[in-house]
């Protein structure tokens, strides 16, 4: 009888001990398990490494030069993460005065070793921007994508015209804005944005030439891969973008992107038909740009097949 009581007490004690251990594990979420602790620590470490970082590269312009296409194409690279929207930090006072913490908060989350890229085409023509970018990071890499300045001007006007028509606002024709008594109106803002040599001069006062990579926007549209390979080298990225990442969309008239079995085409504003401009006015525009273009070619050490 005594042995039966002692055995029952022993079993009860063992059950109580087991129950106590189970309750402790439930309260701690199982952290007493060595295998779980290791996994949890690794997961936490990985999460903490993912953070918003200031950009290591910025696409500074030009407006209507192909900045969105370049950004999306660079984003094909596994070591690149891009800011999804134009930030306008360095060229808008209300944004700039919010400080670098605000700017960083606009960036994507990245892992160590990944490159953050931001693009705001308004940076290129804003004279206060180069010094501000230098103050943020004097080692930042800059990408400048350019296209025929006359074509860029017409594309610039076309976008403004589309916006005004959408909002039912009045508008002037391109020829009315471009010509004054039959001569080129040098005060027209869209024309001033196409004077690449003037804007690049501000950047070269602050940054060395080798820190600015010039992308041929016209070539990027015709055949994206060679221009992307040059950009990869400039950004010290491993060559991970290939010709298989692109396919020509005959309906849209330009290349679309392929990544991990998914395709992506730029939105409908890309490839929009240009606003009309007479042949005579366009020829005047081309003649006007001859000297500014030559100065730009000398600055960058290469020439382009522009009008």
Automatic annotation (TrEMBL):
Broadest EC class assigned to this enzyme: transferase
InterPro entries noted in UniProt: NST/OST, P-loop_NTPase, Sulfotransferase_dom
Signal peptide extent: 1-22
Reaction(s) catalysed by this chain's protein: alpha-D-glucosaminyl-[heparan sulfate](n) + 3'-phosphoadenylyl sulfate = 3-sulfo-alpha-D-glucosaminyl-[heparan sulfate](n) + adenosine 3',5'-bisphosphate + H(+)
Cysteine-cysteine disulfides: 256-265
Residues annotated as domain Sulfotransferase: 57-270
Disordered: annotated segments: 29-49
EC number of the protein: 2.8.2.-
Keyword Glycoprotein: yes
Transferase keyword on record: yes
Cellular localisation: Golgi apparatus lumen
Described purpose of this protein according to its UniProt entry: Sulfotransferase that utilizes 3'-phospho-5'-adenylyl sulfate (PAPS) to catalyze the transfer of a sulfo group to position 3 of glucosamine residues in heparan. Catalyzes the rate limiting step in the biosynthesis of heparan sulfate (HSact). This modification is a crucial step in the biosynthesis of anticoagulant heparan sulfate as it completes the structure of the antithrombin pentasaccharide binding site.
Name by which UniProt lists this protein: Sulfotransferase
């Amino acid at each position: 009888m005594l042995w039966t009581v002692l055995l029952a007490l022993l079993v009860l004690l063992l059950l109580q001990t087991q129950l106590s251990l189970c309750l402790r594990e439930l309260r701690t979420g199982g952290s007493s398990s060595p295998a779980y602790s290791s996994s949890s620590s690794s997961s936490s470490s990985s999460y903490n490494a993912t953070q918003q970082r200031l950009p290591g590269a910025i696409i500074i312009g030009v407006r209507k030069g192909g900045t969105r296409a370049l950004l999306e194409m660079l984003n094909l690279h596994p070591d690149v993460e891009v800011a999804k929207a134009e930030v306008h930090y360095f060229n808008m006072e209300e944004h700039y005065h919010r400080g670098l913490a605000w700017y960083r908060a606009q960036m994507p989350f990245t892992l160590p070793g990944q490159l953050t890229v931001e693009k705001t085409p308004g940076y290129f023509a804003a004279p206060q921007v180069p010094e501000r970018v230098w103050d943020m990071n004097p080692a930042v890499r800059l990408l400048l994508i350019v296209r025929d300045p006359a074509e860029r001007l017409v594309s610039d006007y076309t976008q403004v015209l589309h916006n005004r028509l959408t909002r039912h606002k009045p508008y002037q024709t391109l020829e009315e804005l471009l010509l004054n008594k039959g001569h080129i109106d040098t005060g027209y803002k869209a024309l001033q944005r196409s004077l690449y040599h003037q804007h690049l001069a501000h950047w070269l006062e602050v940054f060395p030439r080798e820190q600015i990579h010039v992308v041929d926007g016209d070539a990027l549209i015709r055949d994206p891969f060679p221009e992307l390979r040059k950009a990869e080298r400039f950004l010290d990225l491993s060559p991970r973008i290939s010709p298989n990442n692109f396919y020509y969309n005959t309906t849209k008239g330009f290349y679309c992107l392929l990544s991990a079995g998914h395709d992506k085409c730029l939105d409908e504003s890309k490839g929009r038909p240009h606003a009309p401009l007479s042949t005579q006015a366009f020829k005047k525009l081309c003649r006007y740009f001859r000297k500014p273009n030559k100065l730009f070619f000398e600055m960058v050490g290469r020439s382009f097949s522009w009008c």
